[in-house]
Design brief:
single chain, 85 residues, mainly beta, 5-stranded antiparallel beta sheet, 11% helix, globular
């Protein structure tokens, strides 16, 4: 029987948020999807709809809309991004 190793698991993705939600949260959040990261960081209720603007800009930022109103931006966080920005 094969026992899964902690080294076989994929790391949880990390997302960088900027001015998201009613409190204007900015920072890094670990979550499976950008929408989940936004819900967790902004402490949004399940009934709130979170949508991402489909196109990303040059640095990978995507606009965030909460219940149809613009509310900050999000991008996948990469440790080595500072070398390219």
């Amino acid at each position: 029987m094969l026992v899964p190793s902690i080294y076989d698991a994929q790391p949880m993705p990390q997302f960088e948020l900027e001015q998201v939600g009613p409190d204007g949260f900015s920072g890094l959040v670990r979550a499976r999807t950008p929408e989940e990261a936004i819900r967790h960081a902004a402490t949004l209720a399940e009934k709130c709809t979170v949508t991402l603007v489909p196109e990303a800009d040059v640095q990978g930022w995507q606009g965030v809309q909460v219940d149809g109103a613009p509310s900050g931006r999000v991008r996948p966080h990469q440790r080595m991004r500072f070398r390219r920005d």
